[in-house]
User: Fold this.
Amino acid sequence: GFEVRLSEPPHFVELEAAWVPYQPDSPHLQEMFRQVRHFGVGLGSCHSEFVITDNGPRLIEINYRTVGDGREFLLDRMTNHGLFHAILQAHVGNPLELSPPTQTAQIRYLSASTSGRVRRSAPERREPCGDGIAEFEPLRKVGDDVRLTHSNKDYLGVLRLFSSDPSRVRDTLAEWVTDLEAEWEIG
Assistant:
């Protein structure tokens, strides 16, 4: 699943999400499954959200839909465009024939740090990242007014990467974040 890093309280803003490949021996995974099963949730394309506490995982919510914010499309690419097909096949009674992605993936949100008008913005980018992809989707453009809200409305753009080479993802992420942050001007 995705491990999400949030902003410091009192705000609750997703800053980044890292894909952690399925590990059946994960110390928290079986407890997470138990909590979801307790609600009677069977197969579906829903997703659940947990917070890991000192006492283990704590279920926050179970959503009626597959994960969103573009993560579902990233997972679909990571499964060679098999995610949605597998979900549909399972819903018509066929066996689930999809292995969880084993690649490394990272999503980083670039956020405004000040209010003002966008004077310079980074363009859309898409390049290979080893055997995967790196892509940047701008969410704001030159001329947009940004009012700092300490929410996802502060996002300037989103960077998504995946590859079977973790170091490629890490290095590309660091390089692109540095480059992209330098391309934005708000004043």
Remarks:
- The chain has four helices and eleven strands.
- The first strand starts at residue 2 and ends at 6.
- The CA atoms of residues 130 and 168 lie 7 Å apart.
